Amino acid sequence: MAGKTLFDKVWDSHVVEAIENGPNVLYIDRHFVHEVTSPQAFAGVKERGVGVFRPNQVLATPDHNIPTINQDQPIKDQLSAHQVDTLTKNCEENNVTLYGLGHEYNGIVHVVGPEQGITQPGMTMVCGDSHTSTHGAFGSIAFGIGTSEVEMTLATQCIMQPKPKSMRINIEGELGAGVTAKDIVLYVISKLTTSGGTGYFVEFAGSAIRALSMEGRMTVCNMSIEMGARGGMIAPDETTFEYIKGRRNAPTGEQWEKAVAYWKTLPTDADAKFDLELTYEAADIEPQITYGTNPGMGTGITQNIPSLDTIEEASKKTYLQSMKYMGFEPGDKLEGKKVDYVFLGSCTNGRIEDLRVFAEAVKGKKKADNITAWIVPGSRLVEKQAIEEGIKETLEAAGFELRQPGCSACLAMNDDKIPAGKYAVATSNRNFEGRQGPGSRTLLASPLTAAAAAVTGVIADPRKVFNL
Amino acid sequence: MPIDKFVTLQTSVVPLPIENVDTDQIIPARFLKATTKEGFGDNLFCDWRYEKDGTPKADFVLNDPTYSGPILVAGKNFGSGSSREHAAWAVAGYGFKAVVSSFFADIFRGNSLNNGVLPVQVSEAFLAKIFAEVEKDPKAEVKIDLENQTITLIPTGESESFEINGYKKKCLLNGYDDIDYLLSIKDKIQAFEKQAVKF
């Protein structure tokens, strides 16, 4: 019998029931909840008169809708305030732990879970948010769900899912200077397109992945959904154990030893087979940036935007619509194009390591005059650490301001909206039309490439700007 | 809570020949502040459908009275992006009962099914034929038969079968929802919990 993959091991140990010619009933270990996709689910549970089945396995934190300044004051937007209040009320009524606005552990749900030690290898985790895939960096099966499924999980701690196909993506070798985890994932998405991973759950492997920190691994898994995959995961190893050890919800003492022994059994067996296996060379990856209106429309920063003759006939209409929206011409050179905004943050790149990279790069330099920059930590703890490490000071000396945590301009549900027609180099995960505000134009990139844009005012290769 | 039972449809369609329609286009994030499921249909494809001041854009298909019907036919990779079920509520709220495309994003597919909207995945060639027939005659009809899992382009008589798992098919035909099922096996879930690995 062929060996099992990491994914198989975790999935198979959570199947409560396999429905014939239908989905599996999958048990969920941890359920994260935020204010936007949960109100209708809590209302549904109440209407059915069943309540929350396992409140201890649910954690809530408002993040999508919250302002990133003056968090000590009431939220001005009435609809946002109502949604955040509804989450508070629902958590109180159902005994669900809430890290509310202003709480010392509040932040983006996908930053909070790992930093609290809640995210652990071998678990199944869901949240009504597609970037739940972030948690897969720990060797857990984590994926986004719709509100009906949030309701199912609240009511029964289970959801119904067909088992996806398996894919392994290997990144082999060493990354070049100035090339980061974000560039790996943008590169892979540009090769696979936004639908290339649909129907699959992806395991990221290879020496370049093994060499990444947990923060870097989270960045890679975070954007699995952008290639259409339901989630991504990385086998747990010493880097993983080191990160979890000592965190608030991590096992301790004898339990820790038992847990580590179990986690070590999870990596994919040598003879396991994947439905699809792809390998890329780390050395082929340069700093990446997107030029279009989906995350698959990306390329190396020294490259030109693809010319029209390279686009398939059936896709030309969509491609031209995208170019028109972006205000670009096919074939344009990317380097040197004017940028108006820089956004550092989100569940993709709002962790301490991302702030460190950005601060280190802009240290001793000045923000370009034409740039408005929003530097948004992923959580209150990241914010606190940034202050303690002197990152805030470094940023301020270079003309930047550290804001308060939240999803912010990644999806612009709060006031952090990029104005129509303006260009933003963003470290977030989506460049869809209007994603960062109606008419906004998003160029996805790494924190380092964002720093290069922030100090030069244009799309710039960080290797040249920072002499890497 | 029951969903609408899916009945066989034979009707004209609304064509949207754009690829990679993401959930931010289906329903922009600024409309996700509601705490109920109602009203999202009014903002379906909002930024393509309305000018900034709210006047309908005449060249967008939903504002063109030439096209109508409870079937939306869209370019490949429909529903990519966020997990927001609001996208499915918007599609259902507008009155669509089925979406036809050559490819669907996973989460959107699941969300649609949970709201009684049938995603019908057809071949690229069949999708192109539907678009071509509708361009010739906006009243060209398409028939979707869930029981037999077939979609037929009425003017040409061409037909394709589509896939759906047996469980979901039964749910849609009978108007059952997943939560009722899960609640019915709670004993089994509790038994599972007793033997699960925990630290």
Can you give a write-up of this model?
- The complex is a heterodimer of chains A (468) and B (199).
- Chain A contains 17 helices and 18 strands.
- With 468 residues, chain A is of the alpha/beta class.
- Chain A has three domains: 6-161, Aconitase, domain 3; 165-284, Aconitase, Domain 2 (3-Layer(aba) Sandwich); 289-465, Aconitase, domain 3 (2-Layer Sandwich), CATH 3.30.499.
- A five-stranded parallel β-sheet of chain A has the order 5-4-3-6-7. Chain A has a four-stranded parallel β-sheet with strand order 11-10-9-12. In chain A, strands 16-15-17-18 form a four-stranded parallel β-sheet, with helices on one face.
- The longest helix of chain A has 17 residues, at 78-94.
- Chain B is α/β, with parallel strands linked by helices and 199 residues long.
- The longest helix of chain B is centred in the middle third of the chain and has 13 residues, at 124-136.
- Chain B starts with 8 loop residues before the first strand and ends with a helix.
- The chains are: A alpha/beta (468), B alpha/beta (199).
- Chains A and B meet through α2, α3, α5, β8 and α10 of A and α4, α6, α7 and α8 of B.
Write the layout of secondary structure elements.
The complex is a heterodimer of chains A (468) and B (199).
Chain A: H1 6-12, E1 15-18, E2 24-27, E3 30-33, H2 39-48, E4 58-60, H3 78-94, E5 97-98, H4 109-115, E6 124-127, E7 141-144, H5 147-156, E8 158-161, E9 165-172, H6 181-192, E10 200-205, H7 207-210, H8 214-222, E11 231-233, H9 238-244, H10 253-263, E12 276-281, E13 288-290, E14 298-300, H11 316-326, E15 341-344, H12 346-349, H13 352-362, E16 372-375, H14 380-388, H15 391-397, E17 423-426, E18 441-444, H16 447-456, H17 462-465
Parallel strand pairs in A: 3-4, 3-6, 4-5, 6-7, 9-10, 9-12, 10-11, 15-16, 15-17, 17-18
Antiparallel strand pairs in A: 1-2, 2-8, 13-14
Helix pairs in contact in A: 2-5, 6-8, 13-15, 13-16
Chain B: E1 9-16, H1 23-26, H2 46-49, E2 71-74, H3 86-94, E3 98-101, H4 106-113, E4 118-121, H5 124-136, E5 141-145, E6 150-153, E7 158-161, H6 166-174, H7 178-184, H8 186-195
Parallel strand pairs in B: 1-2, 2-3, 3-4
Antiparallel strand pairs in B: 1-5, 5-6, 6-7
